[in-house]
Amino acid sequence: MKVDIIGDIHGCYDELINLLEKLGYKKSSYSYHHPENRQIVFVGDLTDRGPHSIKTIELVYHLVMKQKNARYVPGNHCNKLYRYFLGNNVKAIHGLETTIAEYKKLTRKEQMEIKTQFIELYEQANLYEMIPEVNAVVAHAGIREDLIGRYDKKVKTFVLYGDISGEKHPDGRPVRRDWAQGYHGEKWIVYGHTPVKEARFVNKTVNVDLGCVYGNQLAAYQLPEEKIISVPSLQPFQANKFTLSHE
Hints:
Blueprint: E1 3-6, H1 13-22, E2 26-28, E3 31-33, E4 39-42, H2 53-67, E5 70-72, H3 76-85, H4 96-104, H5 108-124, E6 129-131, E7 136-138, H6 153-161, E8 164-168, E9 174-176, E10 188-191, E11 200-202, E12 205-207, E13 217-223, E14 227-232
Parallel strand pairs: 1-4, 4-5, 7-10, 10-12
Antiparallel strand pairs: 1-13, 2-3, 6-7, 8-9, 11-12, 13-14
Helix pairs in contact: 2-5, 3-5
C-alpha cells in the first residue's frame, strides 16, 4: 500500500484539486483514481476559514464514502461543524462562520444533502487511523505513544486539540505541550492542526499542516516514500499565523 496523507484543507478546494493532480490522481467524472492505486488520507479540518468548504465536504465524502479509496480522521473544526449540524448551541467563530455562510446560501434540499453527507462522514470516522502497511498512525493533532490503541475521552481531546495544558496564551490560544519531543515510537505519527511554514519533523512525527488557508502551502506526506509534496496556496499570506515553535 502507498498513501498520500493530506494536511488541513480548511475550505481550500482549488488547492486540493491542484495537489491531487500533482500527486498523479486522474479525474474521471467526479472520481479521482491513482494509476498506482495510492490511497488518500485526510488529517481533518476540511472546512472553515477558506472559500469553498461545501465543495470540499462533497469531494471528501465522495472519495471516502462512495469511491472508498480514501480515509478521513476528524479535526476540531470538523467536530464543531458536526455539533452545529446536530443542532447544538455552538458559537459561529474561529472560521465556522464562513462555512455557515456558505451553507445558508444553499437551497433547503442542498442543505439537507450536505448536512447528511457530513454527519455520515464524521460518524463513520475513527478518532485516528492506524495504517500498519506503511507503519503509520494518522491523527489530526497527533497522539502520544501510550494513547495508541485507546479511544476514550482523553484520547479524543488529544487527537482533536493536541496536548493542551488548560492554560491560555495572552491572545486566547491554548497552551500546548510539545508531545512530539517525547515520542520515541517506531511508527510514523502524521498530523496537522498547528500551521507551520515547512513540514515539521521531530523524531518519527511529521506535521503536514502547512497553513494553506493562511497563504502558504497545501501538503501531502507520501508513505512509504517519506516524501513531502506540496502546492502553493491561492489565499493571501498571513505571516502572523505561523510561529517558530510548536505553538
